[in-house]
Amino acid sequence: MKRYFISIALFLALFNSACDKDFLNRRPEDATTSDVFFETPDQMRTYINTFYNSGMFPKYANHGSDFDSDNQVTGTANQRLQGTRTIATTGTIGFTNVRRINFFFDNYRRVEANHALDAYQQYLGEAYFFRGLIYFDLMQSYGDMQILTKELTTDSPELYSPRDPRNAVADFIIGQLDSAAMYLTADKTSGAGRINRWIALLIQSRVALYEGSWEKYHAGTPFGVTNPDPDKYFAKAAEAAEELIDAGVYSVYSTGNPKSDYRALFAQLDFSTNSEVMFWRKYDNNLTQGDGDFTNDRFFRMETPSNKSITKQLADAYLCTDGRSISENELFGGYNTLASEAENRDPRFYQTIATPDQIWKIDENSDTTYWSEAYDQLNSRADLNAPSGYIIQKGYNPHLVYHVQQYEESPGLIYRYAEALLNFAEAKAELGTLTQDDIDKSIKPLRDRVGMPNLLLDDIAMDPNWNFPALSPVINEIRRERRVELAAEGFRWNDIARWAAADELIVGTRPKGFKASQIAKNPFPIDDDGFLDPLKNALPTGYGFKLDRDYLNSIPISEIVLNDNLTQNPGWQ
Fold first, then answer.
1. What stretch of H or E contains 281?
2. What is the pLDDT of residue 416?
3. With contact defined as beta carbons under 8 Å apart, do 352 and 394 qualify?
4. Among residues 202, 264, 394, 555, which one has the fewest Cβ atoms lying within 10 Å of its Cβ?
5. Beta-carbon neighbour count of residue 183 at 10 Å?
6. pLDDT of residue 34
7. Mean pLDDT for each consecutive 10-residue tract of the chain (573 residues)?
8. Residue 52 and residue 195: Cα distance in Å, rounded?
9. b or e along 397-427 (b: 16 or more beta carbons within 10 Å of the residue's beta carbon)?
10. Element (H or E) spanning 362, and its range?
């Protein structure tokens, strides 16, 4: 836990001085600022606004966010996957945000004296939401974690308490999100302002699915919990997601064009009326948002792959248009060219991966350039390097008028309804209670958008290359659906971690690419079958992920020295 404390009083003092219009009636300078703050709903709102920052809501990343998994690859190996991380000797666990949110809970009740609950319950709900989100991040990083619900001082005995078990932390998070959902507005709003009840339910389904999966698939390992009860969490995940689905507030975005709707969703300039986007960040060069993060130049950055690319492992996961895998499928066009590989595939393939026949750039005169020109020069210079060959276009808008280095205003998509559908289907499958009706209300809308056949529970075609052959066909296909629908959105590592799937997907493997014969110049290694093998020299035996260690981060040794009750995470001793 951090042993230093930030000065919240400084923020409060600045706020009070800025809002004090009557200099002669200003508060005494020797007054304790925390004692006079939180007297009005506006003051609560001002304080909660500080949590609406890029730490809580990261930008929709340039080129995607799955580079810590088997979905995407750069020219260098991820340290976690490689198994080369070392134990942290110094540093902290990062409890600053815990202290900040607990400060709110320690002080907000003075508003009750002069204001009815409905005047401030939105901000109270947001506080519960953020405390849940903060602790979820800590649990994913470290597992067991001290549960602290009040602001501590340097003399507080809780500083030296042991970590609480991860399932107790999960229960705490879910409880916080229950409270958040109770107080938050049920209005959809524009999605770019404040969170609402439905977002709290989305994140609750995410947390419960994560913990249920972790307890089920890590059982009997060093990462297992005492008295695991995964079905309790799967049931909660399904319940929260189904409440969100049945409310009918959101729906899958579609204009009826399966060949472009999925790609168009991520390339929009404004999500305020989008039926699927639940929360997003608006960037405006005329405004400074909270942390000063006011610009997002994703479109400009994605003009070129810049050493970032999709893996063959992800590309192979896309089904053919008949709803069957590429294995032994006559519809599969083969690997000789990217065009043949994209032929007869789930349209999300070519709406995620740029193919030569698609538009690369549209200038101010509406003149177009196609991705074929990029592929003709692929791997010939740094900005056109794509280690696997597969260029990502998900999240890219080709209209150059919207491309502005540093001062672009492309919006950041943060939460979308599709995740709730996938969480629901997976939780029900894990419970063993999934029905065709459940699939029809969850998986089917996602497939309908891209014109793919529905998943039929009684007619799932076998795939000899399923990632998880020991699991049921329906769980394999729901995991596949999750992978392709949420590709490059930052979910993949957390899915691998909660499924305890690094042994199947990471250890001893390397990210591969398309057939090297398609490009004229190539600085990257090639495997024996002619596919790009960018990390072949760096990882001759594949990723060295340590199954008994690398699912969690190490506790800094400096923290353990300060607190004898802290124990180290498995494998880091």
1. strand 277-281
2. 97
3. yes
4. 264
5. 20
6. 61
7. 42 45 37 67 96 88 95 95 95 91 95 94 98 98 97 86 97 98 95 95 98 98 97 98 98 98 97 97 70 71 97 98 97 97 98 98 96 96 96 98 90 96 99 98 98 97 96 98 98 98 98 96 94 97 98 96 95 92
8. 10
9. bbebebbeeeebbbbbbbbbbbbbbbbbbbb
10. strand 359-362
Q: Cα(170)–Cα(144) distance, rounded to whole angstroms?
A: 9
Closest of 413, 63, 365 to residue 269, by C-alpha? 413
Q: Which of 144, 218, 139, 208 is nearest to 174 (CA)?
A: 208
Amino acid at 36: V
CA distance 180 to 393: 36
Q: How many CB atoms lie within 10 A of CB 472?
A: 14
For residue 389 the two structure tokens come to: 């060959």
Q: Alpha-carbon distance 568 to 458, whole Å?
A: 46
- Bridge-based pairing of strands 412-416 and 277-281 is antiparallel
Residue 422 gets the label, from left (phi > 0), alpha (psi -120 to 50) or beta, of alpha
Helix-helix angle 41-49:8-19, to 10 degrees: 130
Helices (H), 486-569: 492-498, 502-505, 557-562
Reduced to 3 states (helix: H, G, I; strand: E, B; else coil), residue 92 is coil
**Cα–Cα distance measured from residue 215 to residue 118, given in angstroms and rounded to the nearest whole number:** 39
CA gap 352, 358 in Å, rounded: 11
Q: How far is CA 186 from the centre of its chain?
A: 23
Residue 73 pairs with which residues in a beta bridge? 309
Of the chain, the end-to-end C-alpha distance in Å amounts to 19
> How many other CB atoms sit within 10 Å of the CB of residue 465?
11
Centroid of chain to Cα 539:
27
The answer to whether the CB of 390 falls within 8 A of the CB of 316 is no
Distance CA 276, CA 236 (A): 22
> How confident is the model at residue 27, as a pLDDT?
40
Q: What does each C-alpha distance from 468 to 52, 169, 215, 471, 522 come to in angstroms?
A: 38, 29, 18, 6, 33
Separation between Cα atoms, residue 347 and residue 254, nearest integer Å: 14
Q: How far apart are CA 447 and CA 348, in angstroms?
A: 10
Contact 73, 148 (CB under 8 A): no
What secondary structure, in 3-state letters, does 418-479 show? Answer: HHHHHHHHHHHHHHCCCCHHHHHHHHHHHHHHCCCCCCCCCCCCCCCCCCCCCCCHHHHHHH
- The two three-digit tokens of residue 269, written as one number: 């300039």
- Residues 24 and 130: their CA atoms lie apart, in Å, by 37
Q: Rounded to 5 degrees, what are φ and ψ at 116?
A: -75, 155
**Site of tokens 């923020």:** 11
What does the angle CA 192 – CA 197 – CA 202 come to, to the nearest 5 degrees? Answer: 85
pTM of this structure: 0.93
| In the block, residue with structure tokens 């020991």 | 470
How far CA 89 is from CA of 143, 445, 532, in Å, comes to 19, 49, 38
